[in-house]
Fold each of these.
Amino acid sequence: MEKAYRIKKNTEIEEILKGKNSVGNKNYVIYIRKNHETNHFRLGMSVSKKIGNAVVRNREKRRIKHAFLSLKDNLLPYDIFVIARNNSLNLDFEEITKEIKNLLNRKNVIKK
């Protein structure tokens, strides 16, 4: 994923979390905040150490990134922060994309 699409700074992540605009299910929690600075979405994510070792966590991050890249053209300019839960490891790629798309639809982040 290109640098312009990433959220890396702690201050930016804290601002998103402070907004308390979230939606979740048993696999993911997604926090969103309107982005007025860019005309595209930006993504940050967190996978807890409780989920597994570094290999497992990085694999889950790659799967989430890939799901967002498949939705890239349909997303409105929001800052999005994803927190993966334990159950997300059991999903295949199509299910991950479906789950994330469903959560984003509930918050009206996907273009109609």
Amino acid sequence: MADPLFKIGVLGATGFIGAPYRAEIRNCREAAIVAVCARREDLLAKAAEEDGAQLTTRNWREVIAHPEVNLVLVLTPD
């Protein structure tokens, strides 16, 4: 597979909003989830496994600073 155009960091990866978005991204050939961030570590580990994410963290700053992330989705509640 070619290197994806969009290398995505997802903030709020495991919540009501984040989970369905992540599922859609997994079906996109031009995108890959590189980093996931959420408060619940138990759900975060599962999300990273599903997505093949390199980074799992509870700190959004780590996602923003990740050298491969070129697009950040903020999928936290209003």
